[in-house]
Amino acid sequence: MSETTPTPKLKKKDKITGKVIKTSLAGAVIDIGLEKPAVIPISQLRKEPVRRVEDVLKEGDEVEAWVRRSGEAGERIELTLIEPLALEWRDIKKGQTLSGKISKLEKFGAFVDLGAERPGLIHISEMSHDYIRTPEDAVKVGEEVEVQVLGVDRKKRQIKLSMKALQPQAKEVMAEEAAKQEPAPTAMEVAIRKAMDNEGEAAPMATKQAKGKKSSQDMEALLTRTLENRAK
């Protein structure tokens, strides 16, 4: 008696291969090596509208597809030939750090392909702490950049990004550079500073001792005058 191979658990966006075993007006049936075949609806054959399934797939064709619905609880497994987005709207959060590629430059900023439905925008004021005359001064088309999400508007399909939010402040950079350039004090300078510090600490102590001595002398004079008056 042969053992039954356990059915692998498919997840949404999993990439799989299969063979077209049947086509219909509604889509195509795909053998993916499991007990039940999967289906690709006609709407998932490509981004552009498809009039006939046979214009895209025919019986016997080998296909690479992505899982659209995993077929849990006995449901059918639904596939798509349209590559899914790497980043869904629900996955984009304010303050999140993402990587992307500059896809387009405008006078007001640069668009970044994040793998989402729409590119994000880095306004020119968010490119650097320094003055930027044009976006070309900071980035180029095709360049990989790291950005922070400033805001997400799902209704307007807008993603606001910043590069400078991930850069150190200009003042901090200047302070660090100044610290690197300042020469270390010589042994003689260290000795002089130490002597000056010791002198500063000794001066208040001498003043305090002088005041204490004067106060003692005043008390002795007062006591002497009192005794003299009693003797009279």
Which residues form runs of ≥5 with pLDDT under 50?
1-5
- The total of helices stands at 2
Structural class: alpha+beta
Work out the radius of gyration: 40 Å
Mean pLDDT metric: 83
Q: Which fold name fills CATH's third level, the topology of the domain at 89-166?
A: OB fold (Dihydrolipoamide Acetyltransferase, E2P)
Approximate helicity band: 10-25%
What's the helix and strand layout?
Elements: E1 15-23, E2 27-31, E3 38-41, E4 62-69, E5 77-80, E6 97-106, E7 109-113, E8 120-123, E9 144-153, E10 158-162, H1 170-181, H2 187-231
Parallel strand pairs: 3-5, 8-10
Antiparallel strand pairs: 1-2, 1-4, 2-3, 4-5, 6-7, 6-9, 7-8, 9-10
What does this protein structure show overall?
- The protein is of the alpha+beta class and 232 residues long.
- Among the domains are: 15-80, OB fold (Dihydrolipoamide Acetyltransferase, E2P), CATH 2.40.50; 89-166, Nucleic acid-binding proteins (OB fold (Dihydrolipoamide Acetyltransferase, E2P), Beta Barrel).
- 25% of the residues lie in helices and 28% in strands.
- The chain is built from two helices and ten strands; from the N terminus they run E-E-E-E-E-E-E-E-E-E-H-H.
- The chain has helices spanning 170-181, 187-231; strands spanning 15-23, 27-31, 38-41, 62-69, 77-80, 97-106, 109-113, 120-123, 144-153, 158-162.
- The strands form two sheets. It has a five-stranded mixed β-barrel. A five-stranded mixed β-barrel has the order 6-7-8-10-9.
- It is elongated and about 130 Å long.
- The model is unreliable at 1-5 (pLDDT under 50).
